[in-house]
Amino acid sequence: MPHRPREERQLERIRAAASAAQAATGSAMDAALAQIGAAFDEAAAVNAFMLRVERLLRLGPQHAAVHARFAARAATLSGRGLPAAIVLVERWWRDERKAFQIASALGYGNRLSLEVLRELRLILRLMRVKGMQAEFGAIVAAACGEEMALAAE
Q1: Where would you tag: which of 9, 17, 18, 136 has the fewest CB atoms within 10 A of its CB?
Q2: pTM over 0.85
Q3: Which of 27-41, 46-60, 96-110, 137-151 is predicted least confidently?
Q4: Are 96 and 114 in contact (CB under 8 A)?
Q5: Spatial separation of the C-alpha atoms in residues 48 and 149, rounded to whole Å
């Protein structure tokens, strides 16, 4: 089966929900409600997150938007290996989630740092699955904006 971009699969899923509702009831209103429901359900939220991470990956570590979003965290990860970085980011995410829950209870919650850590967790996991341990240091250095001389191996 050929690879289809995530955007296409998402649109196809929404259209399928609308056509199934149209076929079941024959009502255009039910089809529209099913289409709206499919566009804003849990799967759509997950797909939106994955699309955001895919766009960041396509931009590359030297892009200004990626640098602005991840430079501070990447600087802290500098000098560590990929497994240690994953453990550290997981710890950051758990701590930040607890802090967000406390701040939200007091009416001051901000999700930005949680979203950045969530994206970083996914990127690091993807790097682990793809076997990119060797490239990890160069990617971190590029995200930090450092010039890194690569040794010939």
Answers
A1: 9
A2: no
A3: 137-151
A4: yes
A5: 36
